[in-house]
Amino acid sequence: MIDIQLLRENPELVAQKSAQKQVNVDTKKLLELDEQYREMLQSTEKLRQERNEISDQMKGGKPEPELIEKGKQIKQALQEIEEQLDTLKAELNESLKKIPNLAMDHVPIGETEEDNVVEYSRGEKPKFSFEPKTHWEILESRGMLDKERAAKISGSRFVYLKGSVVQLQFAIMQWVMDKLSDTEFIQELIDENNLNISAKPFTPILPPQMLRTEPYQASARLNAEEVTYGIEQDDLWLNASAEHTLCTMYWNEILPAEELPIRYIGYATSFRREAGTYGKDTEGIIRLHQFDKLEMEIFSSAASGFDEHKLAIAIQEKLVQSLGLHYNFVRKSTADIGKPNAAGIDIDCWFAGQQRYIETHTADYMTDYQARDLNVRTKIDGQTELVHTNDATAFALSRILAAIVEHYQNEDMSISTPEVLKPYLGGRERL
């Protein structure tokens, strides 16, 4: 949720920045609602003061009947106005929640994701002496991917993965955990990118796979119609991405300043409806209802929030580069960064068998937008302030598995092992 003070001081900016995200905000109506709320709050406070004064007068003796009657009248009036105040506050908050976070000035302005900007490419595309295959052709031919049996018992967009590709996934997971837990690795990236933040490593974490409605809504990540599976009888939702049960972790808490930044690398199985994607990426393991993900989540002070965003991006690039994959670095436009984001980037890896780029990574910077509704704060120099939050993909595992299979394929359908993963696979040259 945005800071209401920003709306009061600069409604034109709020309207302009919201329009850049294809959201029309009636700032005049909102300010009128805010003024109505503040006037009613003043009236409420006045009645509370009168109630307290009468309460003081009634102490230490038998009060006059007129005083008792006046006390009853104020109590009744206070009850009525507090109910109205609560209703008005809820209406104001709901209206504020519809306003997206304001995009930072460097974010490209766009109307659709087609307006995202490819800033540069890194790495070499693989060259083959044969016609490269898709990952599903390779995995199915070797008995590592079984879509038909999964569909039989779970429906479409579920798969069984078997054999060496499963071992490859666990190798990636352990490698990432090792790298992000390494202070020297973090410090190298900080130095390379001239960042003014600590080299504190990421703590591995296994978060819950479900969360309740209230914190999920406060995170600004609950997309019930298109994305998220709900369990109505228990007021629970299956998390649609690993960061959803990470960013909500400190709901309604004050974090000690000396503990910041708090950096997590979390692993979770996530679930998405994928509504509206019928016919899109139905083959293979790119777009599934169930997928595993390694996600970075960072809680920081306002002063270091953007540098933490840069660090997360640097980690993403270093991991992809270490795997030897070719990719595009994409600056997401205002139309694509998402409601709670102030800035965001994608990394689109090259899929050699399909001859196209596919998004494998996203990095999101929320400033204090997410923390405001989650009420996650810290104290800096005695002053309470909202933390800033970042989340960023380390690896969406099914997608990076598919990219590796297509990049490192051989004519005999074997898969060469990326150099950095060989120690985690017993030194095997091929899978």
Short description:
The protein is 39% helix and 20% strand. α3 packs antiparallel against α4 and α5 crosses α13.
Task: Kindly describe this structure.
- 39% of the residues lie in helices and 20% in strands.
- It has 431 residues and is α+β, with helices and mostly antiparallel strands.
- The protein has 2 domains: 4-97, Helix Hairpins (Orthogonal Bundle), CATH 1.10.287.40; 113-425, BirA Bifunctional Protein, domain 2 (2-Layer Sandwich).
- Strands 1-11-12-13-16-10-9-4 form an 8-stranded mixed beta sheet.
- The two termini are 48 Å apart.
- 37% of the residues are buried.
Descriptive key words:
431 residues; alpha+beta; Helix Hairpins; BirA Bifunctional Protein, domain 2; 2 domains; 13 helices
Q: Radius of gyration, rounded?
A: 26 Å
Q: Low-confidence parts, pLDDT < 50 over ≥5 residues?
A: none
CATH topology of the largest domain: BirA Bifunctional Protein, domain 2
Residues in helices, as a percent range: 25-40%
Q: Report the average pLDDT across residues.
A: 94
Q: What is the architecture of the largest domain at the second tier of CATH?
A: 2-Layer Sandwich
